[in-house]
Amino acid sequence: MLKKRFPIPLFPLKSIQSNISLAFSLLILAAIVLTSLVSFQVSVTTVEKNSKGYIEEIIKQVNLNIQSYVDNMENISLLALTNKDVKYYISDNSFISAEDRRTYEKQISDLFQAILYTRKDIASIMVFGYNGRFVSDRRITSLNPNTKLQEQEWYQMARAAGGKSVVTSPHVQSLIKNEYRWVVSLSRELKSTDGITAEGVFLVDLNLNVINDICSNINLGKKGYVFIVDKNGNIVYHPQQQLIDSHLRTEQITKVLQASSGDSFIVDNEEGKRIYSVQDTNFGWRIVGVANTDDLITSKSDLRNSIILYSLYGLVIPVLISIWLSHRLLMPIKELQSDMKQVEKGNFNIQTEIRQMNEIGQLGRSFNLMVSRTKFLMEETIANQENKRKSELLLLQSQINPHFLYNTLDSIVWMAEQKQHEEVVLMTSALAKLFRASITKDQELVPIQVEIEHITNYLLIQKMRYNDELNYVIDIDDAIHSYKTLKILLQPLVENAIYHGIRNMYGMEDGMITIRGRQSGDQVVFEVEDNGHGMTPEQQGRLLLSNTGDSRTQGIGIRNVNERIKLYFGHEYGIQIKSEIEEGTCITITIPKLD
């Protein structure tokens, strides 16, 4: 809570001359600061404009280099287009003999090998005739049987281009058996001598590291780089391709596609202020240069420091300003001291007012952070203790009573020996459902209908164990079945009623447990009543204060059920016990109605 402060006079000095001098000094200071800021901003804008021009020229040169490289690839395709052996090989002409055909294949393969000998950057050269013939730069070439030629992107693009060269995005070339290379493909459809009939497709695969060599040697500052995208926005090259593929880094692809060739735009985000320059190639790629302004504008800090220095030289600070500053500085210190005393008294809601972010303002800010952090840690400690108690209760809830399991399994074995097969199936099914509900941890609140099924299975097992010694009635209003309740809420109470109320009633009337459920206003009320031995008032009090009785048969305990209710729903809900000796016990559970 912020304390109310009274304003401090701007000029507390008594002398009018001193006030006027101070006022002029402040006006001069304001004028110098304003002029310095404008000069600095104009200078920075000019330098940024020059930086954009520099980046554009660099990207133009990259564009020319890549374009020149692709042109060389097209020249190679022209060799195939004009070579008479290639044209004859992919035409409809039939060879006189297989030897005649192998002679043409050798001549074409020798031509391609000669090209590859002078161009180490080319991965492979191939020609695919529509007549089914195929030749490459290798004498013996086995095509991958799992790769369909007609489904390849470069093949489809070449046929659609109608004789023009097309360049694909980087892809894995899997045409040759047992060979998988990361390449960029240039392809074009080969025409017959008349220039009308399409006879095949020529393919040149370019090693992708050539693009990397061209782009990686570009100097755009320490953090600058070049990347390439195709017309669909797919990244052709990026120096941090692995981070892009793993979605650990993103680029401004949308803005890059929207920009025109030769345009530049600036992006200011958490990575800093960056300049993007875009250039288009004539084969569908878009080359983008990215540079950090702090790298390019190397004189920015020097320019700022010079302006500040000359501004200080141009201002003669009056002596009286020191008096004003001392008064202005003294008041926040006294206020901070007063606020600290409030914290010493235990008031952690106080926040000191910060007028200026100077040294004293930073001290006040640190004080506010300290108070807020202390308050947060105190609340966190309380919450952790509360969660710890809840976790301990959940741990107790998940424990399985070994004696109950042993006695139930022993009863199943006895019934199996007595050939009571139906009883064995019924009791085993009920035990499985019971423990499935006990070990489920996905949710703490379940519909009351689920809790009814759980306690029904539990009582069915106990009824089969104790025969006529135990009878029970479940009378729960159908209207509350869809409301939510804590999981395994009733079992501990029924278990307590069996083991401590009616189990030892030998020779007396049969034990009876009645479970009732109804709604009362905005609450749901359960009752677990037995006609057992009952308890004294002292025993009733101890039952809610600690886990009493035989720990082997008490389950998670009535006290833990009571604490779980209060932890999840509030202290106004919980358990009440009403009991009389030799009359029985009635335990009432109250929880809120939750849809």
From TrEMBL:
Keyword Transmembrane (UniProt): yes
Cross-referenced PROSITE patterns: HAMP, HIS_KIN
Pfam families linked: dCache_1, HAMP, HATPase_c, His_kinase
Domain HAMP: 327-379
Reaction equations catalysed: ATP + protein L-histidine = ADP + protein N-phospho-L-histidine
Membrane topology value: Multi-pass membrane protein
Subcellular compartments: Cell membrane
Keyword Protein transport included in the entry's annotation: no
One term of GO molecular function: kinase activity
Top-level taxonomic group: Bacteria
Domain Histidine kinase: 486-595
TM stretches of this protein: 20-42, 307-325
Protein name: histidine kinase
